[in-house]
Request: fold
Amino acid sequence: MAGKVQARRAALRDTLIINAERRIAANGLKTLRARDLAQDAGCALGAIYNVFGDLDDLVLAVNARTFKQLGATVAEALADAPQDATQQLIVMSHAYHAFAAQHFNLWRALFDIERARGEAAPEWYLQEMAQLFAYIDAPLSVIFPDHDAETRGLLTRGLFSSVHGIVLLGLDEASAGVPAPHLDRMISLILSHLAK
Reply:
């Protein structure tokens, strides 16, 4: 009997994640409501909280899937990238931009989820970010062979933050950012100059 209960719980969990992902992708994180998800899943509202502690936990589960997709996109782009370290950084950044543009609401949800001040990010989030940083660190170690690991780590995070900021401002229609058609060119220029 316990096995059937666990199987139903796991099935409901998967259904809720898929439905939440679909709703976030279509309308953004701010419109996500537990009542809508319960209706989508054909379950009682309270059933959601038997599977997830709260709605943020459900969003984190969606974000875990999004991070894996993002990592796979970057890895796939790197597989076809030139051996030149600067070009690898550019290819990765363009892949990041393309992913963000194609999956804008899911990408925004990665960074827009609210956490209590001082609350650490979940371990999976830190691991996924570490994987993205590892992709960036590899070509930086070629470009800056004299930098120690700590300095390169700061440069990696700074570079990620810079590219993320450019993409965020460029894709945010309400901001005075860079026009979207010029984002890849701007990123390429910055990374090319950095390598010099």
